[in-house]
Design goal:
8 helices, 8 strands, alpha+beta, 8-stranded mixed β-sheet
Length: 273
């Protein structure tokens, strides 16, 4: 997973400077204190859940997004079990520690959310947020047990950055041992295809984690459609790497989410309550 630091260092080495006709990556918000950062992350989490609900990627009570607490890194904020994604508000969110205890809030935590996310956050201190839903094309593609092929420009944001895992394939993930196996399979990548289950994405912000999830879902969709029509032509590795360098890094993922944030702030500002 290419981080914000990696991108900024690359820009510095290349001597990139902004002019009136050049694009430069915008700076993310400045962290002032724990309380402000906690609120910021919770607002982004509520927004991310609404985005997945709007896009109909969440079905019933399955699915979860988590974001690490800035003050207590062994805790994460998550949507409560059974709450409609499209109606989520900041005040609905609950905080869970890595033993599964709800330390803030009075609603239950999804057992699968704990089994998966507790292990991912423990294994990856660099990960701030992770997203998972039982989306149609992600879960369908996961049944093939195949890696994601680079067949479209958009796929290249995942070049060499998607892992596969078959541990506990097809069963509801209630055992933290399976969650640990998933985290180990993910390694330092930003996305995982869990066989016969679906996809999960990780990022240094809720913004990027949610964008990666939606983008990977669409890549799974296009791959299924292409395979049903024939044998897709794959993009050469050097061009795939070039695409990844342009759109596969943390800042790119964060930036893509801002269009959804703008829309939600206009249409549904009550999510901030």
């Amino acid at each position: 997973m290419k981080t914000v630091t990696d991108v900024k260092a690359s820009e510095s080495e290349e001597g990139n400077s902004s002019t009136d006709n050049e694009f430069s990556w915008p700076d993310q918000h400045e962290v002032i204190d724990f309380e402000q950062e906690r609120l910021h992350r919770k607002q982004r989490l509520a927004a991310g859940l609404r985005v997945l609900g709007r896009l109909r990627l969440a079905e019933g009570v399955a699915g979860h997004i988590t974001v690490r607490d800035p003050e207590f890194p062994d805790r994460f904020w998550v949507n409560p079990f059974g709450k409609n994604f499209k109606l989520m508000k900041v005040s609905d969110l609950i905080c869970v520690d890595h033993t599964g205890e709800v330390v803030v809030g009075d609603q239950p935590v999804n057992a699968a959310a704990f089994a998966i996310h507790s292990q991912l956050h423990a294994a990856r201190p660099d990960v701030i947020a992770a997203a998972h839903c039982h989306s149609m094309y992600g879960r369908t593609f996961s049944s093939l047990g195949q890696p994601l092929k680079m067949i479209t420009q958009d796929d290249t944001m995942f070049f060499n950055d998607v892992a596969l895992c078959s541990a506990g394939s097809g069963a509801v993930v209630l055992d933290t041992a399976v969650g640990k196996a998933m985290a180990e399979s993910l390694g330092d990548k930003k996305a995982l295809i869990h066989q016969n289950h679906g996809i999960i994405t990780a990022g240094q912000s809720v913004d990027s984690a949610v964008w990666w999830f939606v983008a990977l879902e669409r890549s799974c969709q296009s791959q299924i459609l292409a395979l049903s029509a024939g044998t897709p032509i794959e993009i050469p590795d050097d061009l795939a790497q070039s695409g990844y360098d342009q759109q596969g890094h943390e800042l790119a993922g964060w930036f893509q989410f801002q269009t959804w944030w703008e829309e939600l702030m206009r249409d549904e500002p009550e999510f901030l309550e």
